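Feature request, filed as a ticket because there's no other form

It would be nice if the structure record came with a short human-readable summary line next to the tokens. Right now we just get the raw output. Example of a typical job, pasted below so the devs can see what we mean:
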Amino acid sequence: MTKQTVANVRSVVTKMSSREIASLTGKKHKHVLEDCRKMFESLNLQSAEFSADYQDDKGRTYQEYWLDQDLTMTLMMGYSIPLRHKVAKRWRQLESGEAIPSKSATGLVEYRQARTLKMTVEAVTNLFDLMPNLAPEAKQTAAASIINPIVGFNAIPLPAIEEHYYSAGEVAEQLGVTANKIGRIANANNLKTEQYGKFFLDKSAHSSKQVEAFRYNSNGIEALRHLIHGADVA
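Raw output as currently delivered:
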């Protein structure tokens, strides 16, 4: 994953509820909710995107907001320095694992979900470390397909890929040869570079594993066309 993609993923691992902010600052929860709504309005954000329900001890349902670190700190800018310090300290504890978030609306402990997500992020990052040639777009797409279903929203957006890339099989069909020949020619002439295409994740032909597979752009197809017809690559 790119550094920005990793940052996007990790930003969803930890969140803080408006109830916890109220508890830390000694404010009434209804007042924190009002402050959140004012902040959302000022930032042109839809409050519904951050809203969740929780139940009190009597089973009554109320509203709360879940904020990421940026929004939490933005909210706290309107509070006193001692209160900002308490919240900042709490964030450090959450990120370091010294403390766990408050309970979610369903009564499940949020840290279990955060822990699962954190482990998934680490696994994805380690996987990509084993695939150094993988294109950033491919890493972002793979991370989105794995992480987004866990968090329940598009924490990692799908990249915009403007140029079309073709598999060895698709190029072979265009040029009237086999995919194996395309691979052999590309390897022999060092065509598997950014000038001629990019590496993407693809299913292995001999197993269910995902592997790096080079896909060719228009330059790559043209270079292969010249080589197959006996011309040198420009």
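Something like this underneath would help us a lot:
Residues 39 and 74 are 8 Å apart (CA to CA).
The chain has two domains: 3-115, 168-228.
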